[in-house]
Amino acid sequence: MLEGKAVVVTGAGRGIGRDIALMMASKGAKVVVNDLGGAADGAGADASPAEEVVNEIKAAGGEAVANFGNVAKIEDANAMYEQSMDEFGTIDVIVNNAGILRDVIFHKMTEAEWDSVIDVHLKGSFNMAQAVAKQFKMQASGCFINFTSTSGLIGNFGQANYSAAKMGIVGLSKSLALDMARFNVRSNCIAPFAWSRLIGTIPAKTEAEKARVERIKEMTPAKIAPLCVALADPTCDTTGQIFCVRNNEIFLMSQPRPIRSVHRSEGWTPETVRDHALPAMKASFFDLERSGDVFTWDPI
């Protein structure tokens, strides 16, 4: 499916990114395996995770190179583009998977905790897209696969930084799809359910919470990779969509559209909005739900 194509997978040393890199390579892609090698909160650096994935790809007969750049730095993103061109002579797919978590209830969240998560997820996705956009335009082909989260699409406690970043990525992905469609460039989002060291930070104190975590552990990172490879296939024309993968289920997620309207011929005052408009629409209001409140059934 991907013979002769070059793919950059960020955060590919572990978890979801690792399995994406391995499956991309198994389908013929040449892979830049990027991973800073930091902890779940982004601290530190370790070259071994990326190198191990590269060695695994090569042992299976594939082609891959390691990259240890930080997606939050535009110069590192540019270096990944240059490395792919130098090593493989092409760049065709960007998988924006790299991420960190710094979960904290909002009133205790610091500016540093906000900035660090936004920088890796949202700015990192922008940096990678910006690094290759002109090349994709010139060659009239390319594919972005961006990772969002149901924490942003639906909501979760203690993740204002992460949720905001992940919803921002939805907007970025749609803008990429719109702005670059004329150049045959596609962009889609995936919200994954998969057990990883990041998900391992979920607090589990009650029996119900512990049971939920055990169910999540059944959803391995390898379940995410097939959709990524399918979207990267140059024969695929899908763009501008948001998908969710939960074990053996693939969901197409909704996008914001008007669901209810109210009209007043003489216009609205604050009082009539309060007394008429809001009560009229209340039946269609959304509850304060978390991801787990929406995805309530056991994974298939």
UniProtKB/TrEMBL annotation:
Residues covered by the Ketoreductase domain: 5-201
InterPro entries in UniProt: KR_dom, NAD(P)-bd_dom_sf, Peroxisomal_Beta-Oxidation, Sc_DH/Rdtase_CS, SDR_fam
Pfam families to which the protein is assigned, alphabetical: adh_short
Sequence similarity: Belongs to the short-chain dehydrogenases/reductases (SDR) family.
Protein name as annotated: 3-hydroxyacyl-CoA dehydrogenase
Organism: Pseudooceanicola atlanticus
